[in-house]
Amino acid sequence: MESGLSSLLSVSIDFETSHLFFPRIIHWTLAGLFAVILVTRVLPFLAAVTRGERTLPIVGERMDGLRFFGTLALIVAYFYLMTVVGDIFPYTGYGFLFVSMAFVFLMSLMYMHEWTKKSVTIVVINAVVAPSLAWYVLAKLFTITLP
Amino acid sequence: MEFLSLLDITFFLLAGFGALVGIIFGAIPGMTATMAVAVCLPLTYALGLHHGLALLLGLYVGGISGGMVPAVLLNIPGTPSSITTTFDGYPMARKGEGEKALKVCVIASVVGGLVSAAVLFLFAPMLADFSIKFSYVEKFLIILLALSVIASLSSSMLIGIFSGVIGIWLSLIGDYSISDGGNGKTRLMFDFMEPYLFEGFSLLPVLIGIFGISTILLEAEKGVKSDTANERIKIGKGSHFSLSIFKGRMTNLMRSSFIGTFVGMLPGVGGSAASVLAYTQEKNLARDSSEMGKGAPQGLIASESANNALTGGALIPLLSLGIPGDSTTAVLIGAFTLQGIQVGPLFIPENPETWYVMMTALVFANIVMFFLMFYAIKHIAKVVMVPKHILYPIIVMMCVVGAYAINYGIMFDVWTLLIFGILGYLVQKVGLEVAPLIIGFILGSQAEIYFVKSLESFGTFSIFFTKSPIAVVLWLLILASVIFSIVMGFKSRAREKMELTQISGSTQTDSGKRHDTNSR
Amino acid sequence: MTVSKKTLAGLSSAVVMASMTFGAGVAMAQDGPLRGNIRVVIGSTSTGGDTYQNSTIVVDKLAEQLDLNMKVDAVGASSAFRTLDRDSRGNTLMIFHDQSYLGYLYGVEGYDNIFEKYTVGPTVAINPGNAYLVPKNSPYETLNDIIEAVGNGEEVRVAIQPGGVSEIGFSALKNAISIEHPGQEDNLVAVNTGSQSDKNQQLFDGQADLINGTVQANEQYTRLPEDDQKAMRFVWLTARQDTIEQAPEEGLGQTTREQLLEYVEPNVHVTMGDDETFTFDKEFFFLYNKDMDPAIVDQIDEALTEIYAEGEIQEVQKNSFFIPNFKPSDEASEYLQEKMSRYEEIIENIQ
């Protein structure tokens, strides 16, 4: 009995494939849990959707499409252009500085509901000052590498 | 008392200045204590060892403490170890108790910091000997214990565990790192991803992506409503802070401080595990923990006292074994090597002056941190008064800086922000839970290494039970934690049912971090 | 001693201060081919480690000499190679050590043949500290005891970090055993583990009989009393004898150069066959993008030649227990290639 148990518990891990050992356990756990959730949660939920009692997440909800997708697009453009501009002035942080100014400005405008002269002025000032300050303190004073 | 001659005005000014700069770094989402210490490390050339250490220890203490500010006010952990602060801090802030929450945090922090400093001073060499009793097996069990919080943290245990396992899965992406003793091979990805994902996703960008960027996405989806909306945080509208909050919480405070010190002391068990573990234990052991996760000060006390206690704890192996206890002390070790000072088991006996100087700096930095923060909180809390259309772009910008700088300039870390921002958004939309997922992510890779390495060494699963008395104790704790969460699960379900029958209206709790639309 | 250290610290601090205060704007004063801000990526993610320490010493001097803004970034091997791949303008340089080609020899993912993919730049210093240690109460007095014991069929477990600098000594030892006691080499078992603390822990746990370590990190452990669980003893330093001979006479900590010399060749003999003794010096050198302007290679060579001629950098390096070892690019490339082929043989032999 005892030797049976210890042989059951014994395990030998080949170093060459040891990177797959733990992920395999996690995969099985995930699959098992997912099956349970599918049966106990997702199927009843979908049934409720077809009966019209519940709505699907995301697709079935009201959303401010302009601001949501605008945010995504702006962030993608921001990250991408930062590298591109930064590459023109290697390791000066100018890529971060200039593109951040544009980003902060555009995102602020997009999120603002009422555009008044005063609020736009504040946005412009913020868009210039905030990135400059961050850039000066971090890239210049602390010599942190920025894009 | 020879060392007193080494303490001059400059010394104290530097420690205080360090605490201030550290708080600012910690308070900016994306900037961490580690980063603060790293960027100031070159300055220590100029300052000499003792003055340099004063500055760096100030930064360390300040940086860890500063993390509470965005955690409470913006739901973005300022440093990885303040993640559990968001669980209760942000709900409190939404109830208009931001200032109160921060004050609780500050007091918990200073107590944690001072307790750990005392432990460091009195018991460092002894504890170092104790810490080496923890081999891979025991470290794995510690991680498992911290992971057990997942079960009790979530509103639905099944969903919570599932989210946690997804987090672990995400943490395994990348290579099985050679620097941890792995074989350096990559898994869970396609070949074309290798140039970017070789080292997997880094913790900090994941954290600020999933908390910061996804919060902004969720807001954007709702149209970034103007600031008069009633969900805005009203400073001081809620109940006020008074010391009586700590009444009956002394056990929690002390327990969490010791847990923090202890986790900090174990090399290789990351700092963020400290606050998670303290939070778990408070949840399990407190008489009434039903409000935790919905805005209970006891959660803040556990989280913040533990993460500040980390500072003293992490210095124990550094100064008595020459081994850093967390990522910040790993940078701190540079201050010694750059000055040609060896740290190792004989550091304290051979450099008593430096040792006393460090203790002075540590205690002083904690005190400065306390006064700076306690009296500045009223003003700091005003961050939330800044209109969202100004605040959000700046948060994104600072997250970018933090993500880019954490590994000294890697662009993929910035894209990680977006990837996990979107993931965090989706996860919350389909009703999974963010907190268990992120805890799984934080602890997952360590769990793997300790688990696989234990089996490699001993070749049998039974070693996890038979290795040492410490292992047995840890199993008992894990067992208690699991049983507790099951019992709690039943209780809360029963309560919910009762409420449902009483009022057929919505029982949705206003918990801020949960946007579950369908998991109820 | 302390005075000179202070002056040196002062000098280097002046450099830091200067680069911080006058660093505003892109430095435009240069006349050489190297322009703008220069980033030096290193193959380690640690800012407390030897690669970072050594790189800062060299880069600070270089920045001063060339009047450029230069910054060391600890991005780690895989990211460092990738960053270097992308920039052929010379704004990105890399400093790394023997791991760069040992990783390739051991077939670690993410490492390519540096001699084909990059231009190998000048060597700057040696870290002579690569060491092997046993518990203080170990039955093995010397490395020779271990070789004999393994040769007699005893199993000896060695804690190393696989795939590079930490493994090469182990491979050489294994190779030596296969030469002296053919067929017995499999009794030398690698315990694959990670950081220095993990390796130490294996020793404390009794899961390893011999560990790889460094003089810098383990010296204090060797001075603990024997009844301390943590006490260790050096049995082997892989450095060449004349490398250690260049170390400061007071050695490191309380261990003098004299004492350190006991653990290097010829006192410790790890054969490579044909009377040759295996040695390994961990050397730091520059790596450049293959398409970078060769004029920049020359410019850095010249600047370093001048810096080393002044003689000050050697003092700074020695103070931090590095052995100055400047070789201009061409010489360094040839030398390292030869070094690599020697180790390649060892690794092939034991496979």
Description:
The complex is a heterotrimer of chains A (147), B (520) and C (351). Chain A is built from five helices and no strands. Chain A is mainly alpha-helical and 147 residues long. Chain A folds into two domains: 49 residues, no CATH class; 77 residues, no CATH class. The mean pLDDT of chain A is 89. Chain B has one domain. Chain B has a two-stranded antiparallel ribbon with strand order 1-2. The longest helix of chain B is centred in the first third of the chain and has 34 residues. Chain B starts with 8 loop residues before the first helix and ends in an 18-residue tail after the last helix. Chain C folds into two domains: 194 residues, D-Maltodextrin-Binding Protein, domain 2; 132 residues, Periplasmic binding protein-like II (D-Maltodextrin-Binding Protein, domain 2). Chain C is globular. The N terminus of chain C is likely disordered. Classes of the chains: A mainly alpha (147), B mainly alpha (520), C alpha/beta (351).
Question: Could you name the key traits of this structure?
Answer:
heterotrimer; A: 147 residues; mainly alpha; 2 domains; 5 helices; flat; C: 351 residues; alpha/beta; D-Maltodextrin-Binding Protein, domain 2; 6-stranded mixed β-sheet; 5-stranded mixed β-sheet; 14 helices; globular
Set down the secondary structure blueprint.
The complex is a heterotrimer of chains A (147), B (520) and C (351).
Chain A: H1 2-9, H2 21-50, H3 65-88, H4 94-111, H5 117-141
Helix pairs in contact in A: 3-4, 4-5
Chain B: H1 9-27, H2 33-40, H3 43-47, H4 49-66, H5 68-73, H6 83-94, H7 98-131, H8 136-147, H9 149-153, H10 157-172, E1 174-175, E2 186-187, H11 194-197, H12 203-221, H13 250-265, H14 272-285, H15 297-321, H16 327-338, H17 347-350, H18 352-380, H19 388-406, H20 411-429, H21 434-458, H22 463-466, H23 469-502
Helix pairs in contact in B: 1-2, 1-4, 1-18, 2-4, 2-16, 4-15, 4-16, 4-18, 6-7, 6-15, 7-13, 7-15, 7-18, 8-14, 8-21, 8-23, 10-21, 12-19, 12-20, 12-21, 13-14, 13-15, 14-15, 19-20
Chain C: H1 2-21, E1 37-42, H2 50-66, E2 69-73, H3 77-86, E3 92-96, H4 99-105, H5 114-117, E4 118-127, E5 130-135, H6 143-151, E6 156-160, H7 165-180, E7 188-192, H8 196-204, E8 210-214, H9 215-218, E9 232-237, H10 241-245, H11 257-261, E10 282-289, H12 294-310, H13 312-319, E11 323-327, H14 329-349
Parallel strand pairs in C: 1-2, 1-3, 6-7, 6-8
Antiparallel strand pairs in C: 3-10, 4-10, 4-11, 5-8, 5-9
Helix pairs in contact in C: 1-2, 2-12, 6-7, 7-14
